[in-house]
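A student in our group prepared the protein record below, which I am reviewing. Here is the record exactly as it was handed to me.
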Amino acid sequence: MKQVIYTLILFIVISVTLQAHEKIFVVERENSALAVINHNLKTNEIDKMHNFNHAVVKFRGKDGYVITRDGYIIKFDPINEKKLKEYRTSKSAIGFIIGKNFLAVANYDNKTVEILDRDLNPIQSIQTQSRNVGIKIYKNYLIFACMDKNEIWVMKDEKPTSKLPKFVLYKKFINIGKVPFDALINKNLYVVGLFNSPDIGVINLDTMKYKKVPLKLDKKERILKVPHFGFWSVSKGHFFIPAVGNKKVFVFDHKFNYIKSIQVEGNPVFTALSPDKNWLAVTFSGKKFPLVQIIDTKTLKIIRTFHFPGWVLHVRWSNDTQHIYFSVNTANEVVAYKTEDKNPKKWWKQFEWPIPKSSGIFLYDTRTPK
């Protein structure tokens, strides 16, 4: 009888696991490799991926792309887990975006934005004379911020119906505030963080109007890791914005009216919203690297604080199963907590994978993409 019960339980576990459609790719920061977790097992590594200190992975359709700190854009097959091609756009790159028929890469050094086709063949080089950040797409516009010039450039594709784009400068916003460093886009709003100004900048991309939104900041503390504003979280009614050098997460409505600031444990780095929009996970830098706090987005109160045995460099909510993943870099592991309970205090650790110097966590839906 015990054997029958054990077999039934095993069958249920295997069936549930095989129904999962998410493949997890984890940056191994020091190994120049992508670890692969599939069906809750670490199954592979894609190696020889160059400098992975600030690697970012993105997917579109059946294509995976990685940008490396030393300026390489790498195309890989996320289904068969194979590196396909690489192209070096600069000595130092920071971000990229994938369009329908192109990639746009924001470089630090050289000071350009490079346009490639989806097979990494160069198309166009946009000279900016600045380090470039916060690169986004809206309709047939390409938007990015020039960190050294305190500007935002809006480029327009002159050939939106052709096989390859051709971008021209459509509008330049100058004196936007001091040192833009990252951005998000939500519908028609491009929102940029300003490192040395007590504001955020907002462009309405339909009207091409710019405004500053003041932040209620205290004296700025020294920070070890700049907030990654590309992971600002947008719920149905709120923007959640990590403060620079303050132990706060700001809350605004969608018209950027100030609601409140939530006092958190340390200087925030990532704010990540759960798929159901009920919970916000906040990671920190400095002495608070090992902590992650969970905020209830309805009450705007902290519900739980996780303590990990090392630095948490990334957090990611599953879109497929009820899990939240934590990358614990100095403990060389990725940890998954089960989040099905409505009370975060009852979430429990279900999986643990050994990943050397784990960093960014990126999820790929294995169902046949469009």
In short: The mean pLDDT is 93.
